[in-house]
Amino acid sequence: MSDPFRTIVLSDLHLADPVDDRECAAALEAFVDEHTASPPAPGLRWRLVVAGDLFDLEVRRGRAGRSWSPAPAAAVEGLVGDFPGVWRALHAFAAAGNRVVLIPGNHDAALGLPLAAARVRREIGGGAQVLPHWHDEARGTLVAHGHQLDPDNRFAVWPPRDDAPDDASLGVLMTRWFVGPLRFRPTTHVEGTPLANLLSVIRSHGVRAPRLVFGYLWTASRIVARESGARRARAEAEAAAAADAGAADAGAADAAGAALAALAARPVLASRWETFQRLYLGRVVLTLAAAAAVALTLARAPQPWAPWAVLGEMLAPAALFALRGNRFADRVARALEGAARTLVGRGVCHTVVFGHLHHRADLALGEGRYLNAGMFFRRGRDGAPAVSWIEEDAEGLRLRSAPSAGQARSLRPSIQQML
């Protein structure tokens, strides 16, 4: 093999707070240290590709509020100060002759800006790279975060540019203005129905639930009124035209990047009505209207028909919601899988690896494959921690998992969990 590196891919750690995320950071440090000490084979080294959202700068920005510094170098400086063990482990990994490729995601997009990327390369050393995606033409492997394929998280400008440092998506705005400031941690799948999410918030946050619900509605209304619609659509169109011009100038130098850009989703924020619906505000309005109708009916003098009217007013929105179902369930999963099929079908690559989904995937696509490592660190239903990643062996890329980072290498032969 002419390339002396075996590839590891992990994604979506979302390190934001040194206290809240200390277990995840410790798991990453142990994982990197183990691979530093254990080369894949004599004469071979590791190539670690982080497929986006290693950090969560948007949560940090939301919690910092007015004290947040927009300078990209300052953002990296804060990460270096709060997660010194992560940077130490990556530096030692690179110093041992291994490679590090960092792909920014939608939650740490600022790392792709020139000054931030330069600081990242300096902290890690060893020829570390910061790239919008990674394409191994020899093996036919393409790795990207995948958020540009998601209507909720597509950026107008990608890769990040200095002339658009505050570019944002619907998901990023919700993180900046709701998740970060209120220190809200979702405990359910983000694509659950509104009722399921509401009940989960009540169960997990107790007396804080009303504040979180009000904060969500306020943030959603603010986004619809100020950040969506015609102005956003024009900005998207201008950015797309500029991107097309840049791709034309670049020619075929980055065919994989051009193919990914061509598959980018239409952002939800380009339509005010679509944003209104996506944030479930339509269902909120219908529910409030039904509640008002019930209250007015009960306020009138008792009539024989009143109980039937109340029942109908309560069941009407419930029936509508049941008929329409959860329109957004698995939308991101379908988008990523569809894009992978297209990329493989067009011969851009043989194996596509995305992050962003937060769930593992391993699908055969004719002669190719689509892989997603899911979140690197998470807890199972029993509360036990586990790590998940993708690792290359002599036969190709494989999904791996282990109960803890400390057992990642010792359990490797028995944990080839194919989904």
Description:
This protein is an alpha/beta fold and 419 residues long. The protein folds into two domains: 5-166 and 236-242 and 330-414, Metallo-dependent phosphatases (Purple Acid Phosphatase, chain A, domain 2); 280-328. Helix content is 45%, strand content 15%. It is built from 14 helices and twelve strands. It has helices at 22-37, 57-64, 72-82, 84-95, 114-124, 170-179, 194-205, 209-226, 230-250, 255-262, 272-278, 281-299, 306-324, 331-345, and strands at residues 5-10, 45-51, 99-103, 129-130, 134-136, 141-144, 351-354, 360-365, 368-373, 377-379, 385-393, 396-402. Strands 1, 2, 3, 4, 10, 11 and 12 form a seven-stranded mixed β-sheet that branches. It has a five-stranded mixed β-sheet with strand order 5-6-7-9-8, covered by helices on one side. Helix 8 (209-226) runs antiparallel to helix 11 (272-278). The radius of gyration is 23 Å and the shape is elongated. The two termini are 28 Å apart.
Number of helices: 14
Order of helices and strands: EHEHHHEHEEEHHHHHHHHHEEEEEE
Structural class estimated from helices and strands:
alpha/beta
Total number of strands: 12
What is the CATH architecture assignment of the largest domain?
Answer: 4-Layer Sandwich
CA-to-CA gap between the ends?
Answer: 28 Å
Give the CATH topology of the largest domain: Purple Acid Phosphatase, chain A, domain 2
Number of separate domains: 2
Q: Characterize the biggest β-sheet.
A: 7 strands, mixed
CATH class of the largest domain: Alpha Beta
Please give the radius of gyration in angstroms.
23 Å
Specify the overall morphology.
elongated
Helix content: 40-55%
> Which stretches are poorly predicted, pLDDT < 50 over at least 5 residues?
409-419
Proportion of beta-strand residues: 5-15%
Chain-averaged pLDDT? 85
CATH homology group of the largest domain: Metallo-dependent phosphatases
